[in-house]
Amino acid sequence: MLIMKKYDVAVIGSGPGGYVAAIRCAQLGMKTALIEKYDTLGGTCLNVGCIPSKSLLDSSHHFESAQKHFTEHGIEIQGEIKINFKQMIDRKASVVEQTTKGIDYLMDKNKIEVLHGLGSFEDATHIKIEGKDAQTIEAKNSIIATGSKPASLPFIQVDKERVITSTEALKLKEIPKHLIVIGGGVIGLELGQVYRRLGAEVSVIEYADRITPVMDAGLSRELMKVLKKQGVQFFLSHGVNKVERKGDVVHVTATDKKGGEINFQGDYCLVSVGRRPYTDGLNAQAAGVQINEKGQVVVNDHLQTTAKNIYAIGDVVQGAMLAHKAEEEGVVVAEFIAGQKPHIDYNLIPNVIYTWPEVAAVGKTEEELKQEGVAYKTGQFPMRALGRSRASMDLDGFVKILAHAETDEVLGVHMIGARAADLIAEAVTAMEFRASAEDIARMSHSHPTYAEAVKEAALAATENRSIHS
Ligand code: FAD
Fold it and tell me: Which residues are known to be catalytic?
C-alpha cells in the first residue's frame, strides 16, 4: 500500500512567489513540497516573463546600438549588420533553460521535494496531484502561488499565431512587419520596443489618455516622447472594438472618445491588456478558500486565505503583479507560518519598465500626493547634464524626487534613464530608512555615474541646490 506523504508546507506553483516561499520554509526547518504543473520550474517570470523578455530587450538593444551608434563611437563594420532572429530566440531559450535549472539546483540544495503535476485541493489538508508525480499528499499548511495568465477582451479571439499574447511574442519565428499592440502598459511597451528595434512598424493602441497609466504622469510623458523618437506610433484614448484575422493579416478597429474610427492592418497583433489571476483546476472551494469576483484569492493582512492553514501570494492575490512583490510575500508567509512577525511595506515595492531608457519608481506619484492633500516639493535633474550620460550617449530622461514640504522626508522617487532599474534600489533603501532629501543630497555618489542624478535631484529638492543644472 502506498503511504501518503506528509509535509509541514505544500507550495502550489513554482514561480518567484512559490519557489522563494519553499526555500524560506525549508530554511526555517519545515518539511516542504513544491508542486508545479509544468516540466520546468520558475513560473511565468523565468519561463515566459521577466527573464526571456529582458533577454530579447538586451539582444535587440545591441542590434540597435550596432546600427545607430557604433559609427559615432568609431567602430566600423564592413558589410551589412544583419539579424539572425533564430539565434536571438535560441539564445533567449538558453538563458531561460540555465535560469530554470538554477531553481532545480536550489530545490535540491534546500531538500525541497518537487512534485510535478496539477495540484488541486481535496480539502484543507489534502492535495491531489495529477500528472507525472500523481499522488495525494497531506500538508499541515499550504501556500497558493499559482500566479496569473494573460488577460484578453471578450471579443478578441487569441489564436496564438497572429493574434498573440506575450508568451507567443517571446518565441516568434519571424520579425513582424507591422505589430499592432493593444495596451500601452509595461509588457506591450517592452515587447513593442524589441520588435521596433528589429525593424517592425509598431502601433500601440491605448484606451487611457496616457501610456503606463499607473506611473507618475511625468514618466509616462517622457517615455512616450522617447519611444516616439524611436519610431513607435501611439494611439491614445482609443478603445479597440474589433480584432479579426483574415489569412495572415490581422484587422483591428479602434474608436476614439469622439467616435472617430481607425482601422489597422498588421501581420501580428499583441494583446497586452493585463493579466488575470490563475486558479483553474485548483479546486479552492473544497478547502474553503474564497475567490473574489476579480478571480483573486481573498487574503487578510497576513496573506492568510479564508482557510486558516492556507496562504496565498504573488499574482494570484491583490496588488502589483511583479516578481519581487511575489518573492517578498513568499518570505513573509514562510516566516509567519514559523511563528515570526514579518512585515511588507507595499509602498516601497519598486515598479520598473525595462525599455531603454529604463523607467523606475517607488513610493507616491505626484498625482497620489495631490489627491491625498500632502504638501510636497519636487527636485528634478535631467540625465543629459551628467558627464556619464554624455560618455555613453544615453541623454534621455530625468530623476524626480518628491519630498514632504515640511519634514523633507522622501515620499516618492521617479526616474527614467539609463540603468534606472538598478538606480531605484538607492531610493528604496533611502525610503526604507525614512531618509530626507537632504540625507541623499549629503551622501557622496561616485563620479561619473548615473547615480549622480539621484543626488542632484535630492539637492534640487533641498532648497533648489542642484550643482550641475
Ligand atoms: P507565476 O510566476 O505565474 O507562477 C505560477 C506557477 O504556478 C506557474 O508555474 C504555474 O504553472 C503554476 N501553477 C498554477 N496552477 C497550478 C496548479 N494548480 N498546480 C501546479 N502548478 C500550478 N515582473 C517583474 O517584477 N519584472 C519584470 O521584468 C517582469 N517582466 C514580465 C514580462 C512578461 C512578458 C510577463 C508576462 C510578466 C512579467 N513580470 C515581470 C511579471 C512576473 O512574471 C509575475 O509577477 C511573477 O511571475 C508572478 O509570480 P508568481 O509566483 O505569483 O506566479
Answer: 447
